[in-house]
Batch of 3 targets.
Target 1
Amino acid sequence: MSASQRTNSAVGRVYLVGAGPGDPGLLTLRGADCLARADLVLYDGLVNPLLLRYSHALAEQTCRVDGPEGRVLRQDEINRRLIEAAWSGKTVVRLKGGDPFIFGRGSEEAAALSEAGIPFEVVPGITAATGAAVYTGISLTHRDHASAVAFVTGHEDPTKSTSLDYNALAKFPGTLVFYMGLHRLGAIAQSLMEAGKPKSTPVCVVSRATTPRQRAVTGTLQDIAELAIAAELHAPSLVIVGDCVRQREQARWFEGRPLFGQVIGIPRPEEQADDTALRAVELGALPVLLPTIEIAPPESWDEVDAKLLSLREFDWIVFTSVNGVHALLGRLWKSGRDMRAFGNARLATIGPSTAAALEKYSLRADLIPAEFRAEALARELSPHVAGKKVLWARASRGRDVLPVELAKVGATLTQLVVYQNRDLDQLPSSSLQQIERGELDWIGLSSPSIARNLARLLTDDAKNWLGNKTKLASISPVTSAAAREVGLPINVEATDYTWEGLFDAMKTAIADKP
Ligand code: SAH
């Protein structure tokens, strides 16, 4: 079928989206918007996989063909895949590292789409040069040091025939940024010096810029190649040449983040991990997701639906998890009603995160205990509930503190299972391998059941690292006790029983290290 015949049928749209240089926070709003509406995401090897969490679509990595050979896909194969997916009516996001039109072959993809008659849009991204410069504290232009900046490919060998004029580059009155130049750094520096650029010109090589693995090595044209080899820098790396590199010491900020470079295992269920993972990134850490349980709807909604009709008969409604809030309120909304169904019932939550979840539905918690645990909730609730009707929106599993304690004060407690937590039988294999190789600095344990589940799913090779290279942070004394019972050593314990408290405990441990 020809392109012109296709245009009349429902052809999908393709968005060529710049993913930015690595930090997931550097995706544009438009980029996130496109990801949210995509049916298929084709992403390349430089893209941070955390960005895929903005999308519910099928995602395929295009830099390698699946399978043992792991062959690198040719550009024409990628173009073909884009075109075929669009022809089949799919909305496709082609997610590319940095900016799609800077050394990214995005324009070739656009040309192929145009030729095939497929509607497309291009969303710019933050290119590696600006991302790396800003995150290392270098301003690529400067009133005193650099009136211009040039983005240069380092892919071409300057000692062989090249489209680049190194004499002109040496005279360029500003900053030179070389992409793809790490493996030719010696030749590039040599060619610039031979063309007359002073040997003392400052150079900074930045690898894995804007990520928790960012490393920057500074030197001069004369010694940078040696320094970069000695530092064993990894790809992707960028080479910044010019006087502006000198400002770095004054304008550094990123590497000073409190958890910079720490690799942190987050054993939260998939459905709940996003906020925690993004917060870890914000603190400078690299999150590794380790879901041990999954959250599922109750086996039947019958009982929940029945209770939703009589919510206003309760004096108190108690939520002990964010999931419980979303499950009950989500079901209420689906049933065609809204928060007026609560009548005058008062609301209690176990902690601030659960209260924040209620706020999303414009509901304010009347009671949040000072200490975020079931005992404290029961204690603070007790004076209010004698002879009253209390509804507890709970998980299929959990501790029995509330029923026992509230019965003691004569409350009538109705337990309503609004979601199930089910054990998974394995950790994601790539994450498990990272633990087995000792790559994690921390694992945060945020509940007794997560501690028990993790102990069940970790292999002996993984457990060997625990307590020393891979430290365990526990959210509360109850969690620490459960962890120790199943043989997990706890290195630090949070004083505030939230994930933020876990991060704080890690920060303190790092700051205290001699
Ligand atoms: N379209 C991309 C560039 C693709 S070319 C962009 O606009 O950024 C690939 C090169 O980009 C790498 O060889 C490296 O030089 C550079 N690069 C990409 N991401 C980088 C990162 N996080 N840190 C350092 N350099 C990076």
Note: The longest strand covers residues 412-423.
Target 2
Amino acid sequence: MTTAVLIVAAGTGTRAGGGVAKQWRPLAGKRVIDWTIAAFQEASVDLIMVVRDPDNPDAAQALAKHKDILLAKGGVDRSTSVRNGLIALDKMNVDKVLIHDAARPCVPAHLITEVLCALDTAPAAAPGLAVTDALWTGTAHEVTGTQDRSNLYAAQTPQAFHFDAILSAHLALDGPAADDVEVARKAGLSVRITQGDINNIKITRPEDFARAENILRSSMDSIPDIRLGNGYDVHRFGPGDQVTLCGIEVPHDRGLQGHSDADVGMHAVTDALYGAMAEGDIGRHFPPSDPQWKGAASEIFLRHAVDLALSKGFRISNVDCTLVCEFPKIGPHAEEMRSRMAEIMNMDRDRVSVKATTSERLGFTGRGEGIAALATATLVRA
Ligand code: CTP
Ligand code: MG
């Protein structure tokens, strides 16, 4: 699954003035384009492509230090720049593409996550802000009418698409289009609206530089929203010849009893994630009274908790799980468990810990009546 972002930066920035096109100009200690690229370097994006005018020396200078990005050639208008970028990305096995204006350097991390998440259930998605001001029609000097705003949204980027669908839509485009949502809709794709952000401004006029600088500086000063959650679970031993722990089948002279596959470690981690979001526990989302969850693979529960966190704009910073039992011995399997858990949660392995302890033969775990698991999870929203 490859996700790319196409950052369109081939405009001349005429309305912003200032001689040098706005995307190459300084902003809060870097350049506009540096902020925009950095927002996607921190997101779950595999490829970054910048569409720029290859003959513009300001572009060459500003992009020289970015060794890990791909480049494409801009066109006469925004749609042509996007189309050139999409064609350059073709054959790179891209599944999902975000299309973003270089002139929106303040794009918040949660907005990128949310629009990408919406692509799991829609062919296209884009952030929109419901219009709150009253709207008039008018001449330059006089109000001529009032416009109903109840169905109106201000369009933002990044706009997200399944790659093949938006490439075909652009290749079939006849005439101008305001943005890629219009291109997609002309090709018959339905576009989901995700929540836009008032800080995701597009630098357009000279005064927008000061606004963008304020937004970036205040986000640098602000403390990220960090949530901790804990989870605890116990399953009783019963007849069987293996146990499933953190997604790995471990041979044992007993099995674990439970409604699902009784993966006590995965349940504790799942509950830690729900806990961090104050979203109850597994039982609330997958009631044991519902027969469809009998014998279910626990990764269904874990994936649900992970998707819920992403849809709320959180990144999972780390999880730590401790299994408590005398037998089976966990040590020989712990690394495999970490890898499996990291794979399910789509996290780096070094952010996932699985470890074990005995309880010195004390209590129910010590007597070998069952296995207990404790977990902690940290969620971060920038
Ligand atoms: N863009 C582009 N290729 C074009 C025109 C625009 O890649 N031929 C990009 C711009 O660089 C910008 C984004 O599309 O990041 C949004 O366009 P806009 O804000 O209109 O930027 P400009 O066209 O550069 O500005 P202006 O219209 O004021 O000249
Ligand atoms: Mg323009």
Note: The pocket of magnesium ion (ligand 2) is lined by residues 11 (CB under 6 Å).
Target 3
Amino acid sequence: MRLLVTGGAGFIGSNFIRYLLAEHADAQVTNFDKLTYAGNLENLADLAEQPETKARYRFVRGDVADPDAVAAVFRERFDAVVNFAAETHVDRSLEDAAPFLRTNVLGTQTLLEAARRARVARFVQIGTDEVYGSAPDGVAFAEDAPLRPSSPYAASKAAADLLIESYVRTYRFPALTLRCSNNYGPYQFPEKLIPLMIANALENKPLPVYGDGLNVRDWIHVEDHCRAIHRALLKGRVGEVYNIGGVALKTNLEVVRTLLKLLGKPESLIRFVEDRPGHDRRYALDSTKLRKELGWSPCHTFEEAIERTVTWYRAHAAWLEGCRSGAYRDYYERHYGQREEFVARARAGSRREDK
Ligand code: NAD
Ligand code: DAU
């Protein structure tokens, strides 16, 4: 199988490439990635060096929204495309939505067009549960739930999902969409809740919990996500959407307290800070379709896998430090150092526009 993976230098993409090369002796992977702040070739450095994987893995730097770069990579023939490339952090999309629209919407369309012309046999879009918006208590969204994105990030991902649907209908393009819940595991950029809290706790820095900390997320270990993507790639029905989640629903406070306990740090490190504007209260997915049709079920419990995750970050202090240098420090200062001003600016902006 010759596979084009976009965004493979990020968190889930790098875990997926690692998983696929281990599972498929015949898989050849081209990783096409722009290497934004979130892309890190160190995540795959061993694969590019080891004799068993070296000949089956190739990296090409490029932007999915750049038609020339995308056309150039498609000079190679691929059996399938898995599109992970995206701007992914909700908080950053509140500061500036433009890169989200460029990569997540225009980038998806640019890739779709090139893949269609190249007659690729299968295109897997990596989507998110955030497109459904907040789930009321007791409700787990199935694939037919309406799309109600709350953040510019979620709206850009919903737009990408709709583009996929339009290509399936108009061109009978062989694409399918997967919508997963919150992932955790190795190589996650430390702007996201779990690695951020681990990194701060390791340095005895405050742990910034938004609002009352009672927002619920549906946590899945990245390996369980990768296994679902692999199944869908081989056996998923074209034109369909599959939800991936329903594994471990936790409030943010429960997650943060678990991390502090595993790290042997005091709860006094927790700081309640101004809430994220437009913060979805609860995510919960119904993955019955994936379980029934593709025989998927998670292999990891939250309790076991979060402990391994903490151990991984403890053992990879240099990797964490690498991510947190340079531009990350400016982002952190802007976002957390001046949090009240940031939130007030976002709210004042929306009030001005309401008038
Ligand atoms: P990430 O931010 O860790 O990685 C994104 C990768 O995409 C980086 O390597 C980056 O360099 C690359 N990229 C960004 N813009 C690009 C462009 N224009 N062209 C080429 N490459 C570009 O993200 P992640 O958490 O690994 O998420 C991967 C995908 O999974 C995304 O589509 C995201 O929406 C989706 N998703 C993530 C989660 C989660 O919990 N992290 C859950 C559900 C769905
Ligand atoms: O649900 C899937 C989505 O999960 C993906 O599509 C996104 O790409 C991914 O970033 C993630 O989005 P979230 O916004 O849910 O993840 P994040 O780690 O940013 O936040 C998780 C929860 O923790 C959320 O309720 C906000 C809260 N939070 C987050 C940060 C960064 C805090 O309380 N404090 C923080 O500092």
Note: The domain at 2-185+220-250+279-303 is CATH 3.40.50.720 (Rossmann fold).
